[in-house]
Specification:
Length: 1009
């Protein structure tokens, strides 16, 4: 029961009248009645003020509305008036209770306020009644309530017997750590005994428990030395086979009773806080989970996790720079590829450094806990996206695992994803477990757990259906709907084909799944909804409007109004085969839809094609990138020519099509992969158009070259020739030959490709090849030919009206002349003029190029750096900040008179956080929480986080520094990561010999002198 709004308004009106009649200020004294109502409500999360009773009251009087109006905040919606006490009022009331008995009476007097739902009130009542819950047996939700209850009860005078808050918090965190695993095994786990044994053998954990006596493998696997690295273990198999469930069962069996004796980390890359493209986020999650398992080392591990987040921020900036430099033809082959290689190298170094320190903490934590060399099992789930040839993520993951295992040899790496994909970075060949169908006994047990109680029926169904878990669940659902009658069950069994030999198993499996799904649909009571359900599978989202305009007519239904469509939608949304997809939107369950889309439609094929064609027309008539993405999705599903579909592509639709390749034919999936990025399985590569194959292969070769694997890149380049004249592979072949030391062949390949691109009218490819040819000529000492190629490229870009492409070519020429024996300032002057003349909106499209140009021409145009800071700002990655920090530290060390000015600038930018007096100029990052920054680079990070970095840099440009070191440092930071000439000519880029400077960790600190 809750208060009606009309009653509440009357009480509020009366209270307002009292307030208006009151003379002078209200007294802050708490009346007895007000205090009593506070105590009655202080152990309630929320309450209805009209129903709040004082201890001993037979019925509520509603007096709480008047007394507690100023002490509460309102909660709830519509016709419910639900209040809760403000935190300070609750705390005062708890401390004012006479004791535990008074608290118990207050709760028991208001049982009707919380009796229908769980919450801390029930836990409070249990403690007050002498029935203390056991935290080890509670779920994370119950532990959350228990923690709140204990925090409240700890304020009640005379209360005793409560658990320690810190221990309770740790129990809650560990329960939350295991919660994702427990969700996966919510249904009874069946079979997989052999696979579980293999996992235990690999990890070195006995079957009975990881906390029990260790076998020999486990004893040898911990912190002791090993003669060779232990290979990863890859678990793979078709979708729906239970890979994630198997891993969850293994981990939970290894951690009985939440024991801390089995260190592990479970990483699921489907979680939004983790990115498979940022391996450093994996390290952060490892550190976070180990911190929960080893509370004594929590602070140190949390600091490492924070460092990972800083590294992720820096890497995103670096990756953005690489992406930008690859977008322009005149920066792709030189600046783009050099920055890409530098990025991968620095990222790998940073990640392996951090993960080694995480492993070192684990070594010490295990020793401090007196554990006997336990294995540390790292489980990575949903890793498919990174498993393709040449994947930089795969290479960096190999490096991370090797670094961890070098420090902690007991580390075991288990991956769930595709079948193993080879990578040049691997040190050992991984082991693998392929998940196949469940054995007959496990299949029968799974059917029984899903409601098929008759063992004979379960055996016959298992024989017909096979051991695929999803097929068995569909069969159980169909059997439940069919009922227990012999005729209906016999009809179901007869409708399923007898299983054939292994060669046909997959075909049979798909056929069985289709039959079962049809039988489930046939039990939908509403005939019109039943007609919509199967054709609706081709749609990724269903709304009332889509039912009316897309689905209804092909399905033979007349739906004339949106209200009629809503009635059908309401019925459809109640089916257990669909799930919510937003307001007034549903979609078919992903597991079922993925399988059903691979089946031939039979007599529904024409209907489903008609639905898809109407979907194309529907979405084509609508604005926005989400509608365009759906239009493209259905065009590709209809097998339209990828080249004509590509003409409908809009920037930004990529995120709406991620993962859609699995719904497509290989040819259509080839276009999506070429546009979205990542690798493609062999069947997609075989079916892709030549143009799409070349783009996918080009990305793989780029990735291999960025990691330094030129031999593997050359092997990939030997496939599927001849290439199209405009193929990006021509440039990559010349680049690869050059890296293999075959320089004459590289120059010839570039020259031939330039002529071919020119004949075919491929201006972008011609520009890229001219820049590459110029670089190869420069490397060979042929500066005249290099200059000629760059001038041709600039002329082509100008002729095309591509200002930024022309700027990229001119930047390359400026750097070429800077390296000559007699530098020619003409190119720098022209470059400075371009930077001044181009509109800011144009420059803002390519921050990486604009920064590189500013760092090149600042000597000719003193205002170039300030202008660039206004338009695109300073890079914020670690390399840029360390470069600038080094320059500031050196300038202050060599010119003490600048110290006060620099301290003012840094202090204003960093804000109120100040360093500790004992911080030395050479101290490292990783300070204790609450301490100030320990060096100049950390101050710059604070400025970056506060958004004051660009203002700081502009003030630095105004400092009267006769040596020019500070300006050169800003220029060097501006060109960081773009292989800028600034590093070669500016002394700020490296310490001078013999000056005693510590570089990055210079003496400058924020604050006032």
């Amino acid at each position: 029961m809750s208060t009606k709004p009309s009653e509440t308004r009357k009480i509020f009106t009366e209270r307002l009248r009292q307030e208006l009649r009151a003379d002078g200020d209200r007294s802050h004294a708490v009346s007895d009645a007000r205090g009593a109502y506070r105590e009655a409500a202080c152990l309630l999360t929320r309450f209805d003020p009209m129903l709040l009773r004082l201890p001993g009251e037979g019925r509520a009087t509603g007096g709480a509305v008047l007394e507690l109006l100023d002490d509460c905040t309102a909660m709830g919606v519509k016709d419910r008036a639900v209040w809760n006490l403000k935190a300070d009022v609750r705390d005062e009331a708890l401390r004012g209770l006479a004791g535990p008995e008074a608290a118990r009476l207050a709760l028991e007097g208001n049982l009707d306020q919380f009796q229908d739902e769980p919450g801390p009130e029930r836990i409070c009542l249990a403690y007050l009644s002498g029935s203390r819950p056991r935290p080890a047996d509670q779920s994370p939700g119950e532990l959350t309530d228990t923690l709140q209850a204990v925090l409240w009860l700890s304020r009640v005078p005379g209360m005793s017997g409560l658990p320690d808050v810190d221990e309770l918090q740790h129990t809650l965190e560990r329960a939350r750590l295991l919660q994702p695993l427990e969700r996966l095994v919510r249904e009874p786990f069946q079979g997989r005994a052999r696979e579980l044994d293999e996992l235990r053998d690999y990890a070195g954990t006995p079957a009975e428990s990881a906390a029990g006596p260790r076998n020999e493998a486990a004893t040898a696997s911990g912190t002791g030395s090993r003669s060779a690295p232990v290979p990863p273990l890859v678990i793979h198999g078709p979708g729906g086979m239970g890979k994630s469930t198997l891993l969850a069962k293994f981990l939970l069996d290894s951690v009985p009773d939440h024991s801390p004796d089995f260190p592990f980390a479970y990483i699921d890359f489907e979680r939004p806080t983790l990115s498979i493209h940022e391996p450093v986020t994996l390290i952060a999650e490892i550190a976070r989970q180990l911190g929960i398992q080893y509370p004594a080392h929590r602070a140190e591990l949390d600091a490492l996790a924070d460092e990972c987040q800083q590294a992720a921020h820096s890497q995103r900036e670096g990756q953005d720079r690489v992406t930008q430099l690859h977008q322009l033809a005149t920066t792709r082959s030189v600046l783009g590829r050099s920055s890409s290689q530098e990025f991968q190298l620095l990222a790998t170094e940073r990640e392996t450094d951090i993960v080694r320190r995480v492993a070192d903490v684990l070594v010490r934590a295990v020793a401090a806990a007196d554990q006997e060399n336990p294995p540390f099992v790292l489980v990575v789930d949903s890793f498919e996206e990174a498993q393709y040839r040449g994947s930089p993520v795969l290479g960096r993951m190999w490096a991370i695992c090797q670094a961890f295992q070098n420090v902690y040899p007991g580390m075991r790496f288990v991956v769930s994803g595709r079948a193993y994909v080879d990578h040049p970075a691997r040190a050992v060949m991984p082991r693998h477990i392929e998940l196949d169908e469940l054995d007959p006994q496990a299949a029968v047990a799974l059917l029984a757990s899903c409601g098929v109680k008759d063992p004979d029926v379960a055996r016959v169904l298992a024989d017909r259906v096979g051991g695929h878990p999803l097929s068995l669940k569909l069969a159980a659902r169909a059997a439940t709907l069919a009922g227990s009658g012999a005729d209906s069950m016999g009809e179901l069994i007869r409708s399923l084909p007898a299983r054939r030999r292994q060669f046909f198993r997959r075909v049979d499996q798909m056929l069985v799944q289709g039959i079962l799904y049809d039988r489930i649909l046939n039990h939908i009571a509403n005939r019109d909804v039943r007609r919509l359900a199967h054709p609706g599978l081709v749609l990724r989202i269903i709304t009332p409007e889509i039912i009316k305009n897309v689905l209804a007519e092909p399905c033979g239904l007349r739906v004339e109004t949106l209200d009629d469509a809503r009635l059908l939608f309401d019925e459809l949304s109640r089916l257990d085969l669909v799930e919510p997809a937003g307001p007034e939107a549903v979609r078919h369950r992903a597991d079922v839809r993925a399988i059903m889309l691979r089946l031939p439609g039979g007599d529904r094929t024409d209907v489903m094609r008609a639905v898809e064609q109407r979907a194309v027309d529907y979405y084509a008539a609508r604005e926005g990138i989400e509608a365009r993405a759906e239009e493209i999705y259905h065009r590709l599903r209809l097998n339209e020519n990828p080249r004509s579909v590509e003409e409908r592509w809009l920037p930004g639709i990529e995120r709406f099509l991620a993962g859609a390749q699995q719904d497509m034919s290989p040819r259509a999936a080839g276009l999506l992969t070429a546009k979205l990025g990542g690798g493609a399985p062999d069947n997609v590569m075989a079916g892709a158009d030549q143009e799409d194959w070349e783009r996918i292969a080009a990305r793989e070769v780029e990735d291999l070259l960025a990691q330094g694997f030129a031999e593997a890149a050359f092997v990939r380049l030997g496939e599927r020739r001849p290439w199209t004249p405009c193929s990006p592979l021509h440039s990559l072949l010349a680049e690869t030959l050059n890296r293999l030391g075959r320089r004459d062949e590289a120059r010839k390949a570039a020259s031939d490709a330039i002529a071919s691109a020119q004949s075919a009218g491929c201006a972008e490819q011609q520009l890229e090849l001219l820049l590459l040819s110029a670089r190869l000529a420069e490397d060979a000492g042929d500066l005249a030919n290099a200059d000629r190629e760059l001038r041709v490229a600039e002329d082509i870009a100008v002729g095309l009206g591509q200002d930024l492409e022309a700027m990229g070519a001119l930047l390359a020429r400026a750097r070429l002349t800077a390296g000559a024996e007699s530098p020619d300032p003409e190119a720098d002057t022209q470059l400075a003029q371009q930077l001044r003349l181009l509109p800011d909106a144009v420059l803002a499209d390519q921050p990486a190029l604009v920064r590189a140009v500013a760092s090149q021409v600042y000597a000719q145009d003193p205002g170039a750096l300030d202008h660039t800071l206004k338009v695109v700002g300073l890079p914020t990655d670690d390399e840029a900040l360390e470069t600038l920090g080094t320059a500031i530290g050196r300038a202050a060390s060599r010119q003490p008179g600048l110290l006060g000015t620099l301290m003012d600038i840094l202090g204003d930018a960093a804000g109120p956080s100040q360093p500790q007096e004992g911080d030395g100029p050479g101290s490292r990052p990783g300070r204790s929480q609450g301490a100030g920054p320990s060096n100049t680079t950390e101050i710059l990070r604070l400025a970056r986080d506060r958004g004051t970095l660009n203002a700081l840099a502009r003030r630095l440009l105004a400092v009267r520094d006769k040596s020019g070191e500070i300006v050169a440092g800003v220029a060097a930071a501006m060109g960081a990561g773009a292989n800028g000439r600034t590093k070669r000519r500016a002394s700020a880029a490296r310490p001078a010999e013999g000056n005693g400077s510590s570089g990055e960790n210079g003496p400058v600190r924020p604050g006032r002198p």
